[in-house]
Amino acid sequence: MADVVLEEVCKRYESGSLAVDRFSLVIGDGEFLVLVGPSGCGKSTTLRMIAGLEEISSGTISIGGRCVNAVPPKDRDIAMVFQNYALYPHMTVFENMAFGLKLRAVPKREIADRVNEAADILGLGELLHRLPKQLSGGQRQRVAVGRAIVRKPKVFLFDEPLSNLDAKMRVEMRGELRRLHRRLGATMVYVTHDQTEAMTMGDRIVVMDHGTIQQAAKPSEVYRRPVNRFVAGFIGTPPMNFLKGRIARRGQELAFLHAADASLPVPAASVPFLEPFIGRETLLGFRPEALGAENGSAMEARLRGTVDVVEPMGNETFVQLVAEGGTRVTARVSPECVLTPGTTVGLPVDMRHALFFDVQSENVLGDR
């Protein structure tokens, strides 16, 4: 296996549009890295540049310590799994998995050994003589992955491979790919727009927007310690709640005023970096699970508002609330918490996990 190093990589098209801007990242040997972001953020373009399917405009890409800027895709020792399975319809599963090895003149016995080994890993042993049309979507995707495994590449690249599957099959395939990574110990780079996939699969995730890296960290850190409003709002389902307001002094303490007669206490840990913002507009962010759950914290406050939509999910309930000031927020509460649309309530807010953002830069304030 090998590491992948991108240094100041840019992709500018002839039209002048900049798809990827100064992308620098080290992907460790054996790491499962996920590139995630909205459509058009540059994640698939970045993956295709690693594969050699897109020419880079500037910068360098190295695989296993070798610069591959001028190396054609077939010689980069990578294997790519696409969104569409790209299986030959007239070939059996065995033939589809073996085809690339035949083109490389690998001996027949070795081809059979490699295909059978990959089929055993992926549970395809009984399907080797079937045609693609005789397989389910999940089975076809496993064949596409198997075709990559038999290559024994240094790096596996996945371009939204699960997006054509139904919800249940996506969950199953996420687990299969993680088990595959543990078994092979391979370097894998995975592209998705689905932040649930990113959070559940990646050793590390890279959140992208407008061709740039917004944050690269472990999933738990990106969730708990986002560096800016974009990351905070993109990662998490439902997304983080945001309230606009200003910081004011209340005796020896600070408060966040978000409506004419409504305020929330500022945690003591946040006071030092918020004192320069007294009297200035600031953005408060908190996750849905921080709203509506009684926890007995000294920093627990009440956010008043009118219940608008109640969404029972079985083991939890999402409640959309129109807070004082008119901002819509979402609470994640227990199913035992019965709330009726149209009623006015005061839900507890755990301010210990609140974040504050600069309104201009939208960067998080303080060392979170």
Task: Summarize the model shown.
The protein is built from nine helices and 19 strands. The protein is α+β, with helices and mostly antiparallel strands and 368 residues long.
Kindly provide the radius of gyration, computed on alpha-carbon positions and rounded to a whole number of angstroms.
Answer: 25 Å
Helix content: 10-25%
**Count of DSSP strands:** 19
| Secondary-structure-derived class | alpha+beta
Strand content of the residues, in percent? 25-35%
User: What is the tally of helical segments?
Assistant: 9
Unreliable runs, pLDDT <50, ≥5 residues? none
* 3D shape: elongated
Major beta-sheet overview: 6 strands, mixed
Task: Summarize the helices and strands and which ones pair or pack.
Elements: E1 4-12, E2 18-27, E3 32-36, H1 43-51, E4 58-63, E5 66-67, E6 78-81, H2 93-103, H3 108-122, H4 137-149, E7 155-159, H5 167-184, E8 187-192, H6 195-201, E9 204-209, E10 212-217, H7 219-224, H8 229-234, E11 241-250, E12 253-259, E13 262-265, H9 271-274, E14 281-286, E15 300-312, E16 317-323, E17 328-333, E18 344-350, E19 355-358
Parallel strand pairs: 3-8, 3-9, 6-7, 7-8
Antiparallel strand pairs: 1-2, 1-4, 4-5, 9-10, 11-12, 11-14, 12-13, 14-19, 15-16, 15-18, 16-17
Helix pairs in contact: 2-3, 2-4, 3-4
Report on this model:
This protein has nine helices and 19 strands. With 368 residues, the chain is an alpha+beta fold. The strands form four sheets. Strands 6-7-8-3-9-10 form a six-stranded mixed beta sheet, with helices on both faces. It has a five-stranded antiparallel beta sheet with strand order 13-12-11-14-19. The protein has a four-stranded antiparallel beta sheet with strand order 2-1-4-5, covered by helices on one side. The two termini are 35 Å apart.
